[in-house]
Design brief:
The protein has 316 residues and is mostly helical. The chain contains 15 helices and two strands. Strands 1-2 form a two-stranded antiparallel sheet.
């Protein structure tokens, strides 16, 4: 009978002490993140539901959104910026990310010489300020003092030169390709790290089966790095729909010519702060910012709850 209480005591779960020190260490980061991210987001969402009526801030509900989508002038600017933003994103997805994957695949070749130098050279533009990048490319592509006409003349292609940044049909593509040039090093390094994480046993087994070269990449390596490609895709989506700095540097706040390079970021800037003859409107600026937040939230949710769940993962 004396053994029964002891056996019950042994069956009871052991209560672990509360680890208060974890909260103490997380508190400073939580305070900073809340002050910089969470509180401004909440204030933006709140401001989008108010407007100034007779000099006083008045709750208007979804009235600002009705103006944004229903008013002819506001709707034209918004849909033009949204369309340009999608083009900006698609160019990055179809040009930047495939080039990043291809560069990572070549840099991961064991027999490639000077691989470290190539990695550094390709990643270096990512570290440059967007002001420097925008100014340099404006000089390069300038039809007056730029070096592009001269360089194209050396290879007999001067007839193909055009003031790409000054033409509505090509300005957005040119700005997008400048952004691709600057940030292609990010997907390259992420894919390169994913390729290095593939166990040697898998590669050796593929070589034993006669799968080598690019066939090995397409059949073995590419399926294994699909999660990394998914992460890069969603980071590209978030980054492109938050873009502002490079377009502002190259084309200015008006995102010329004739708003051909206007994206949601530049439209938000002009609306909130005002520019030249346009007066700033905090409520409409917050409304555009809220729509941007909802677009990004929808894209991230689609990836997390639909695409990522169906993506096959490999555990080693």
């Amino acid at each position: 009978m004396s053994d029964i209480p002891s056996s019950r005591d042994a069956a009871e779960p052991i209560k672990r002490p509360m680890r208060w020190h974890i909260g103490v260490f997380l508190l400073p980061a939580f305070i900073v993140y809340s002050a910089v991210m969470i509180l401004p987001l909440i204030e933006t969402l709140r401001l989008s539901l108010f407007n100034v009526v007779d000099g006083q801030s008045t709750f208007v509900g979804l009235g600002n959104f009705k103006v944004l989508f229903g008013d002819e002038r506001w709707a034209a600017d918004f849909w033009n910026a949204l369309r340009n933003n999608f083009v900006f994103f698609v160019i990055h997805m179809l040009v930047q990310n495939p080039i990043g994957v291809a560069l990572a695949a070549m840099l991961s070749l064991p027999k490639l010489r000077f691989a470290a130098f190539y990695r550094t050279a390709i990643f270096l533009p990512t570290l440059l300020s967007f002001v420097i990048v925008g100014f340099i490319w404006k000089l390069i592509l300038s039809p007056i003092w730029g070096v592009s006409p001269y360089l194209m003349d050396l290879v007999g292609l001067k007839s193909l030169f055009s003031p790409w940044l000054g033409k509505p049909g090509s300005a957005l593509i040119a700005v997008s390709l400048i952004s691709v040039w600057q940030y292609v090093g990010i997907p390259m390094m992420l894919i390169y790290a994913a390729l290095l994480n593939i166990p040697e046993e898998v590669i050796e087994a593929a070589e034993c089966d006669g799968v080598t070269g690019w066939s090995q990449f397409w059949k073995i390596k590419l399926p294994l790095i699909l999660p990394a490609i998914g992460i890069i895709s969603i980071l590209t989506f978030v980054g492109n729909f938050n873009a502002f700095d490079l377009v502002y540097t190259v084309q200015g706040a008006l995102a010329g010519p004739d708003k051909a390079t206007d994206i949601l970021g530049t439209l938000l800037y002009r609306t909130f702060f005002g520019f030249q003859l346009q007066l700033g409107d905090r409520s409409m600026g917050a409304t555009i910012a809220t729509v941007m937040f909802l677009i990004i939230l929808a894209g991230v949710s689609l990836y997390l709850f639909v695409i990522q769940r169906r993506m096959r993962r490999y555990q080693f």
